[in-house]
UniProtKB/TrEMBL annotation:
The protein's name in its UniProt record: Coronin
Location of region: Disordered: 386-466
Annotated gene: LOC102206980
Compositional bias (Basic and acidic residues): 407-422
Top-level lineage group: Eukaryota
Ranges for domain DUF1899: 3-65, 471-535
PROSITE patterns reported in the protein's UniProt record: WD_REPEATS_1, WD_REPEATS_2, WD_REPEATS_REGION
Any Pfam family matching the protein: DUF1899
Organism: Pundamilia nyererei
Membrane topology: Peripheral membrane protein
Length: 1053
């Protein structure tokens, strides 16, 4: 009997949305990862983009806004490619992401009209390399499955110290994970062709496994009905196929379908309520729909949808977001290169759009979790309560009270299950679902001890703090934009650039007037370019500075734009004086040669306040202080056990910080001691590091590497180095050291490495979370260095906060970093504080060595003709709605009538001006006045524009009639069609003209066109009477002419 049974979904038809309903402005990238590249909740859509190397996700809304459009925004999630993402089934705003940077982050998304938080609510570090998959549990809140390279882990976000379970290692890369619909089992597909089914609460080894896949190419797995598993992959002939399996017997499949040969991964999507399966191939334009059955035939095709663009990813929209009144049973979002296409699957029904069909829309799973992660881990198997899809029966979701978000935490794997269970029993979830009863929210009354049901309203400062806690810390520079300036400012055609400078060297150096660039020419040659002379350099050889040995590092004197110090491999420091106007000839003789180191020099740094002071580090493990006025060394600092990676003077010029390969960060007071006054642990990696003072000298920021060679930023308190880093933030994996530039006016640090294409930007604050990530800048090609100019080079009218020069293989390009602002006509004094004149010395080197201290003077960047934005006149708020008295005022019928007449008179314009038809011969003035009066009376029923338009038509008809009367020649009543009305029709209209408009419309509807009724309603009917009268007058005049002519002919005869 079953084979003759028909399905109610057999006629399900795909319907591609119109172009104005597409989500545009999408820049989807092509990335090698195991995710579907797009996921949707009932409210939001998240998808991979090509921006920031794939570390940034795009966000849009499922439903269009009031204007019919869907806004698209971005959120920076990871420092590297986002490999997978998933929305919580119980919270439309909770998104989990995993990345190549080996972290899992949970994000609390807000409305798209607001700014997304730059900090995640939670960061997990499973610790097994690159992460590929992340998947929420279908019945429990706060439970995640995370797929690493060769394993899967189960995490409870309430218990953040370690995973609940680390499943047995797979033989190769894990390609897909899938929870059973009741949440009891987890299935995986692997590159070793194995299908595994785990019961994580019973054992870490799989309860079922079989080598069932035929190819090791990319595969996907998901649970369908009951115990049925579906896999997609490739057969031995490299043809894409989908197979259905009984999870209790994986040795042979129940059924399969082949979908042709193609290299793109086949992504499956399954709808539990209807049993419909959607299959979309990556890189293809088609989407196939099948119905899954637990008996023969197991897979029956329903439809095939063909789109215009190739697929980058697909996602199912949750059932609660569907238009059930239109018999929509499934909706798919197709991600393409530039847009997202909604595809609606609808079942044709006679009363579609007016009636809810229970057979098509059974009760679906709701948004309240059945249990907590702890309850599930202890053996619970409760199911999510189902809700009706009927619009009148849906329970209105109550708004959840805002709760305080905990401080951002980074979690590393480790610990036993016993410890985890103990921790879970005493901790509350930072990511509890609003509707979950497992973690009751804190209310003000619960902590204040008040027995009253009324809670005092918080103060404005408390409200602001609560809002910040909810949304996370934000920075006024979070939307900073980097822009390469016009090509006219570039220096191009640079030849022979040295691309192998030591790691301690910045690659090149700049000042306000010129740029020094190392060349890959024997003799340690350095080219000097004038910033005032941009353009293409000549092909011929240029004058250079010849050092005769390889260059290790070089730097401009901050107080003399003509003096360049160069450290060489011969342990000597040469000081060169560039002539006014730049190099005219090759320089071979330095002004000063300083020698004291016994081995090769690492780096050199000028003192920030005192003129003529220079510090250098060397392979002889010493740091030496030099006085350029005498050309002699004045201090030798010791204490380093290995290579010195970087040095930095404190803002007041009193202290010197170093970071060393021996894993230590040190602070020296050179005038008091040659040994470090403080010492503490630094980054664990040995690739390289840099150090810079931040937050008015209260903290040290170090950019370095961890033990896994991942780049990161570390913040140390300058008063307690021995305590270690107070905060750290991972960046990404790359071999080059991040070179920092710190702006003390904005507390923004800009970092990039030699050979990178991305520039990272953070605001550093002296309190948790310390690092606030801002928008990054990406260059079109790898750059060899980025150096910055004084603050006076910034165009404050365009809100530029930093201007630098970017060195590429053949060019030097200025880059401006701007803060987007609306009122650019005002000086943004909240962005521009008084800046230090660091290009002028505060004291001499000799004075500093003798114990004196100085301080830079400060200047304002405000132009004289600009007003600070803080003093800008306040705009008077525009009242959005009229006072309530206007709406509450009752108007009499006479008042309403007067207002309507006044409105009609106003539309008619000035009644004293001559009307156009007065220059034509028309009906008698008395007749016209009578008809016009009738029109005005009937026009009272008309509102606004319809009356004016109908009246203009009446004037045009009258004018046409007058023109026709002036024409010469014999006219026939049968041939006349001046007014567009036949004689018979005109007589009928005049006979019924005394009836009411409603009676006319009811009894003589055939006399009037249906589409003309919208022109003027009953006023249009009255205008027909006017035309009919003119038609009869015209006929009478023609008859009189004919009679007159006849009488004249009779007289002549």
């Amino acid at each position: 009997m079953n084979r003759f049974k028909t399905s109610k979904f057999k006629n399900t038809t795909p319907k591609i949305a119109k172009k104005d309903e597409w989500i545009n402005n999408v820049r989807a990238g092509s990335f090698a990862s195991q995710g579907n590249h797009i996921k949707a909740s009932s409210k939001l859509v998240a998808f991979n983009t090509e921006q920031a190397g794939g570390g940034m996700l795009g966000l849009s809304s499922v439903q269009p806004g009031s204007d019919g459009q869907r806004a698209v925004t971005q959120i920076s999630c990871h420092s590297d490619l986002v490999t997978d993402m998933d929305f919580s089934p119980f919270d439309d705003s909770l998104l989990a992401t995993c990345s190549v940077d080996e972290t899992v982050k949970l994000w609390r998304l807000c409305d798209l009209a607001q700014e997304q938080s730059s900090s995640s609510e939670l960061t997990l570090r499973p610790g097994q390399g690159r992460l590929e998959l992340v998947l929420f549990h279908p019945t429990s809140s706060g439970l995640l499955a995370v797929g690493t390279t060769k394993s899967a882990q189960i995490w409870d976000t309430n218990c953040q110290e370690a995973p609940l379970a680390v499943l047995e290692q797979h033989g190769d890369q894990v390609q897909s994970l899938g929870w059973k619909l009741d949440g009891s089992l987890l299935a995986s597909s692997c590159k070793d062709k194995m299908i595994r089914v785990f019961d994580p609460r019973a054992q870490l080894a799989p309860v079922q496994s079989a080598k069932s896949l035929q190819s090791n190419k990319d595969s996907r797995i998901l649970w369908t009905k009951d115990d049925l598993l579906l896999t997609t992959g490739f057969d031995t002939m490299r043809s894409r196929e989908a197979r259905l399996w009984d999870s209790r017997k994986l040795t042979s499949s129940l059924g399969s379908v082949s979908l042709g040969t193609s290299s793109g991964t086949l992504i499956p999507l399954f709808d539990e309520d209807t049993g419909l399966l959607l299959l979309a191939g990556m890189g293809n334009t088609g989407i196939d729909c099948f119905e899954v059955s637990s008996s023969e035939p197991f897979l029956s095709q329903v439809s095939h949808c063909l789109t215009d663009t190739s697929t980058k990813g697909v996602a199912l929209v949750p059932k609660l977001a569907l238009d059930v009144m239109s018999c929509e049973v499934v909706r798919v979002l197709q991600l393409t290169d530039s847009c997202i296409l909604p595809i609606s699957y609808q079942v044709p029904r006679k009363n579609s759009g007016h009636e809810f069909h229970d057979d098509l829309h059974p009760d679906t799973v709701g948004t309240t979790p059945a249990m907590s992660a702890e309850e599930w881990w202890k053996g619970g198997n409760k199911q999510v309560e189902r809700v009706s899809l009927h619009p009148d029966k849906r329970a209105k979701q109550k708004a959840a009270p805002a709760k305080q978000t905990p401080a951002k935490k980074e979690v590393a794997s480790g610990g036993s299950k016993e410890d985890q269970a103990r921790d879970c029993s005493t901790s509350s979830s930072p990511l509890s679902t609003p509707s979950s009863s497992a973690a009751p929210s804190r209310s003000p009354s619960s902590t204040s001890g008040l027995s009253s049901g009324f809670v005092p309203s918080p103060s404005p400062s408390q409200s602001a703090k609560a809002f910040q806690n909810l949304m996370g810390p934000t920075s006024k520079f979070r939307h900073i934009q980097g822009t390469v300036m016009h090509r006219d400012t570039h220096i191009t055609n640079i030849r022979g650039l040295n691309l192998t400078t030591p790691g301690e060297c910045d690659g090149f150096c700049v000042n306000r007037q010129r740029v020094a660039v190392p060349l890959a020419i024997s003799g340690g040659q350095i080219a000097v370019f004038e910033r005032s002379q941009p353009g293409k350099l000549p092909d011929t050889a240029l004058p250079t500075i010849q050092n005769s040995v390889n260059v290790a590092d070089f730097a401009w004197d901050p107080f003399d734009t003509h003096r360049l110090a160069v450290a060489g491999d011969d342990a000597k420091i040469r000081v060169w004086q560039v002539p006014e106007g730049g190099l005219k000839e090759t320089l071979t003789e330095p002004k000063i040669i300083m020698q004291g180191h016994t081995e090769k020099i690492y780096s050199i740094t000028f003192h920030p306040l005192a003129s003529g002071l220079l510090v250098s580090s060397s392979y002889d493990l010493t740091v030496r202080l030099w006085n350029l006025e005498t050309g002699k060394q004045v201090k030798v600092l010791d204490g380093h056990q290995d290579q010195v990676f970087g040095m930095a003077w404190s803002p007041d010029g009193k202290l010197l910080a170093t970071v060393c390969k021996d894993g230590k960060v040190r602070i020296y007071d050179p005038r008091k001691s040659t040994s470090p006054v403080q010492e503490g642990p630094g980054p664990e990696g040995h690739r390289g590091a840099r150090v810079v003072w931040v937050c008015d000298g209260k903290y040290l920021m170090v950019s370095g590497f961890d033990s896994r060679s991942e780049r990161g930023l570390y913040l140390y308190s300058a008063s307690s180095l021995s305590s270690g880093a107070v905060s750290s933030v991972p960046v990404n994996v790359s071999p080059s050291t991040l070179i920092p530039y710190y702006d003390p006016d904005t507390s923004v640090v800009i970092l990039t490495g030699k050979g990178d294409t991305r520039v990272y930007i953070y605001e550093i604050v002296p309190e948790d979370p310390y690092f606030i990530e801002c928008s990054s800048f990406n260059s079109p090609e790898p750059h060899k260095g980025l150096a910055f100019l004084p603050k006076t080079e910034c165009n404050v009218r365009d809100v530029e906060v930093a201007v630098g020069l970017m060195l590429t293989k053949t060019t030097i390009e200025p880059v401006a970093f701007k803060v987007p602002r609306v009122k650019k006509e005002f000086f943004q004094d909240d962005v521009y504080s008084d800046t230090a004149v660091w290009w002028e010395p505060a004291l001499t080197g000799s004075a500093w060595l003798s114990g004196s201290n100085g301080q830079h003077k400060k200047i304002s960047l405000k132009p004289k003709d600009m007003t600070p934005v803080s003093e800008a006149p306040k705009e008077a708020p525009v009242r959005k709605y009229l006072p309530s008295s206007v709406y509450l005022e009752e108007k009499t019928d006479e008042q309403k009538k007067d207002e309507l007449l006044n409105a009609m008179v106003a539309k008619l314009g000035n009644m004293d001006d001559p009307l156009p038809q007065e220059s034509y011969e028309g009906v008698d003035e008395d007749e016209w006045a009578k008809y016009l009066a009738q029109i005005v009376v009937m026009g009272v029923q008309v509102v606004g524009r319809a009356f004016a338009r109908a009246l203009r038509q009446e004037y045009a008809a009258s004018q046409a009639a007058a023109q026709a009367r002036g024409r010469s020649g014999q006219e026939s009543a049968a041939a006349s069609s001046i007014t567009g009305i036949s004689l018979q029709e005109a007589q009928q209209i005049l006979n019924i003209s005394k009836l009411s408009p409603e009676e006319i419309q009811k009894n003589y509807e055939h006399l009037f066109k249906v589409n003309d009724k919208s022109v003027g309603g009953s006023f249009y009917l009255q205008s027909k009477v006017v035309r009919a009268k003119e038609r009869l007058d015209e006929e009478l005049s023609i008859q009189k002419k004919e009679e007159k002519q006849q009488s004249q002919q009779n007289t002549e005869t």
